[in-house]
Design goal:
about 325 residues; alpha+beta; 12 strands; ten-stranded antiparallel β-sheet; two-stranded antiparallel ribbon; 10 helices
Length: about 325
């Protein structure tokens, strides 16, 4: 861990200590109180994203191809709007937050403060994660809808996929499909390598730390030499696909860890995602592409992700909702 990271983590620790001094209860209690409060803006956000993968499922559970290529090519050098390292000012009993002027780290830390207000504040105990993803570009009137079911205790192995109403996994018309073999391959992979951020199990997710420093260490362990944008991407994966499995305190740690990364910037104003309102924060590449996560900071809910290719003005958007369910095919 670099001295740069340590400075940012000290900022996070200071931020949380000052909140505790101003509030007679610990942050966990504050979040519990928030569960009973109505969102002051009257918005309900419950979008999530899928990006976990297992050996044979990577082609269908990864990010959309264009976004994945862009993420691999991001070069983070110096960008003109580095918003790293500032902390919101506080007033007694609350965090002062101005959406119009907040920087990306401030937005992420404010979302961290509000994880108890998330639609997934109380995680479920079902065996499968159901992810519904709606993808579109700009004002596309005919979005693509993709529904996926992942088995939690098999490294988020994809067991069922429906694309625009057509079931493609399992595919009875494909004589070469061997689900039992794929399942065995995934089990062997987990036995040899163990669960990771990208192939988690419920026990692995339960073991994740609840502090920013510890969570950042977990992200770095996955990619020891990774640039900040790769750590950011792994944080996004946790906040979306595992949202209904990890605890509010763990989600807080993810947001706070992401807030310490260099060169995270925000897009000015708000972003509408399928009639829901959020704020976009992310990375620019030297080539001119941009990758963002879209958050409602008042509830910490993630609406989805979006990507803009170099030279383009329109974003491709992936809006997600995630639910833990009992069986493949269930949607609630």
């Amino acid at each position: 861990m670099t001295e740069h990271d340590n400075d940012d983590l000290r900022l996070v620790a200071s931020f949380r200590e000052e909140l505790d001094e101003q509030t007679p209860r610990r942050l966990a209690s504050v979040r519990a109180t928030f569960l009973a409060e109505k969102n002051p803006k009257g918005r309900t956000m419950n979008a999530r994203k899928t990006s976990f993968f297992t050996p044979r499922r990577i082609a269908v559970v990864a990010l959309p191809a264009v976004a994945a290529i862009a993420l691999g090519a991001v070069a983070l050098g110096s960008v003109g709007n580095d918003e790293r390292g500032t902390t919101p000012s506080e007033t007694p009993g609350q965090v002062a937050f101005d959406l119009d002027t907040a920087t990306a780290p401030e937005i992420l830390r404010y979302a961290a403060y509000n994880t108890g207000r998330s639609t997934h504040a109380e995680n479920s105990t079902g065996d499968y994660v159901y992810v519904r993803e709606t993808s579109y570009i700009g004002d596309d009137a005919e979005p693509n809808v993709r529904e996926a079911w992942h088995e939690i205790d098999l490294g988020m192995h994809l067991v069922m996929l429906v694309e625009d109403g057509v079931q493609t996994i399992p595919d009875a018309s494909n004589p070469k499909e061997d689900l039992a073999a794929e399942r065995a391959e995934t089990a062997d992979y987990l036995a040899e390598h163990g669960p990771t951020i990208n192939t988690p199990t419920r026990d692995y997710l339960a073991s994740l730390p609840t502090d920013a420093e510890g969570m950042l260490a977990v992200l770095r362990a996955e990619h020891p030499d990774a640039e900040p944008h790769s750590l950011f991407k792994d944080g996004v994966s946790l906040l979306i696909t595992a949202a209904a499995v990890i605890s509010p305190d763990q989600r807080t740690a993810v947001f706070e860890a992401m807030a310490t990364l260099d060169n995270v910037t925000r897009t000015e104003g708000t972003v509408e995602v399928l009639d829901r309102t959020g704020v976009a924060v992310g990375f620019d590449s030297e080539e001119g592409s941009r990758y963002e996560i879209i958050i409602d900071p008042e509830t910490s809910d993630v609406l989805g992700t979006r990507y803009r290719a170099p030279g383009e003005s329109a974003f491709s958007v992936q809006a997600q909702t995630t639910t833990v369910v009992e069986a493949p095919g269930d949607t609630e």
